[in-house]
Specification:
This protein has 332 residues and is an alpha+beta fold.
Length: 332
Amino acid sequence: MGGDPQSGEDRLIARYFRPLARHPGALGLVDDAAILSPPEGHDVVLTTDGVIAGVHFFATDPADAVAAKALRINLSDLAAKGAEPAGFLLSLALPQDFGEDWLAGFARGLGADADRYKCPLLGGDTDRIPGPAVISITAIGFVPHGKMVKRSGARVGDVVVVTGTIGDSALGVRLRRTPTLAAQWALDDAAGDHLTRRYLLPEPRNAAALAVRAHASAAIDISDGLAGDLAKLCRASGVAAEISVSSLPLSDAARRAVAADASLIETALTGGDDYEILCTMPPEDVASFRAVAEAAAVQAAEIGLIVRGEGARFLDASGAALTFSRGSYSHF
């Protein structure tokens, strides 16, 4: 047979993704599978998550940022388990109108973050679809045997701790959809840019994975909102939580928005896409956890306690419980 024996998919992989597959176990992306051996005495931790155009990102978002977000939301899951990234698989389904320039930017962003977080591409699949772009990643991590931090370990008396700040991304999405909200929320350009940037590029807290593994009794990454994800942790652990709203770590931008519109505290707590680590630990471990996390440039704040009962209660300064129109972000 004459002509190029490679398919269009083969050429796409060779041009954009084979240069990213530098781990020897990836086999240069010329095989149907990859090989990955955990270090002696370690368990393999697996997680998968995806992003869809129009649902998790705007179709006009830069391709490099879309790639980074797709990888980072999976790295966040590994961080909350106390695991170190080892590699990832990529499934990329694109409509016809995603051209070479978009693919080049996507590969550039993916490669930069694969290097930054030491999480190499090991393989995957590419497809054309009639609908919106769908990008799915399966991330693989390693953790010392028996040390993965589950959702189910919280105990009565534990302190509830969260990394970073919460609510920025959910507020950023609203601002991205309706830019005129910046004036209503009394935000200057820098504050507005902070919120939209946090939506566009989450910061997974992998640098705090060691602190989580060493001190947390239970942990979860905040993808569906602090209120909903804390409720999930409480259900898994058979406990309840009481959270002081005044202790919540808000960025200056989020604090200004909430000061202008008090109802936005619900958006901050239930909107999702924070990708911070929410964890519990005995009171005597909090100082050590914060020291290890902050040495890795990850801030951590105490926001409440684990108590007997069911569910998560968010209490205002007077001790009254807040009620929300929805508990968390949900696709269904």
